[in-house]
Amino acid sequence: MNCEAPLPPPTGRGGRPRKYCSDACRWAFGRTRARRWRPLTQRHQRQDDTRKQRRHLRDQAEHLAQAAGKLALDLHAEDLVAPTQQTGWKPGPIAGYTAAALPLLAQARAVLAAAVTADRAAGATWDEIAAVLDVSPDTAVRRYRA
Q1: Do residues 128 and 140 touch, judged by C-beta distance below 8 A?
Q2: Cα 37 vs. chain centroid, distance in angstroms?
Q3: Out of 19, 42, 126, 136, which residue is the most buried by the measure of CB atoms under 10 Å away?
Q4: How far from 69 is each of 6, 64, 73, 83, 107, CA to CA, in Å?
């Protein structure tokens, strides 16, 4: 089957017909089949990993968008009330806007980490990621390696 040599005549023992002319031919076919399927399996694994990381990135981005939308709605609602009822006139913490934006920063960092993980799963190198982040590759590895 592999080397196009004629198959030996069947032995008188019965059984199924031979597919290969010799053991060497059978082993050679097994090696080529293993080489042919291994890269395909690795590529599928990488595609599955990329798909999972992309879903995680999407979820993180949606959470960030929801939190940013809530902050925008709160600020819009504050614009609609009388100026004396707005945060700047009320007694209490002066840095209320900063405190409201701080969770967004934490979520944005989580989105960035998920994006780096998704890029790595898709096959991007640390050098490419570091160039986008404008940091050295060592810094990128230190910050985002999981």
Answers
A1: no
A2: 23
A3: 126
A4: 74, 8, 6, 22, 13
Using alpha carbons, select from 143, 136, 145 the residue that is nearest to residue 117: 145
Residue type, 113: A
DSSP state of 94: T
Q: 1: which 2 tokens?
A: 């089957």
Q: Residue 94's pLDDT band (boundaries 50, 70, 90)?
A: low
The answer to whether 8 and 21 are in contact (CB under 8 A) is yes
C-alpha pair distances (Å), 78 with each of 32, 86, 96, 97, 98: 70, 6, 12, 12, 15
Rounded CA separation 67/62 (Å): 9
Residues with Cβ within 8 Å of residue 11, at least 6 apart in sequence: none
Both structure tokens of 65: 């968008």
Q: Three-class SS of residue 137?
A: helix
Residue with tokens 């031919």: 25
**Residue 46 has which token pair?**
């990488």
pLDDT of residue 38: 62
